[in-house]
Fold this protein.
Amino acid sequence: MVIKYSYLIQFPFGFKAYRDVPFTFYYEFIYQLKRLTCINIERKCEDCILKDACIYFHLTGKNFAYYPGILVKRDFVEKKNYAPNEKVTLNFYLFPSLLQYEGYLTGFFETKNMIREHLFQILDFKKENLELHDIKTDKIKILNPISEIDCIKEQIVYYNQNYDTSFNDEIEIKPIQIRKIIDQNRYQIQNYRFQFSGEVGTFQVVNWNNILLEIGVGKTNFVGGGVGIENQD
């Protein structure tokens, strides 16, 4: 199971920024999370003696060295400009074992009405439990690029061990008809620098399920990488 938090927001005076809306909100949330939970004056995770008990370190997959337990839905191509009163839905995901920390996410939205100097309003909020079930096909279409496809099994093991999930770690994925796409922009969250790139297309899969299609897989799935759908062909 995964918990989905959906926020319908509106920008009364529009939105125009260097980065798209889902990435911007995720970036600002992570920034606030660290500011609220980190007591290391140097704010460096690697050498911190408190990191094993640190909420930020845990939720961010050891400061993005591995796989964060809180994710946001983001398409490979996202709008950066919104007209006045235009609306957008933001979807965040949290694993159930992290439910005790959901206040950091809901509090982020409850205490803010500005993002990068742009006013926003919350028009609607929904919280939904997405139950895990196997998909009905052995072929899927990946819509957003999978980064580090060879590490997906490692990712599933990490989820099971660190977030108490129950994904089948005998997962398999093999390319059928794929292509590589690259976002030439460079991104950074805290001190983690990355690029959106990887494979999209049709894959043969074993032990795949609906939740992995929704939250994605791969190193950048915390911001939309590796999201897919069941192949209807």
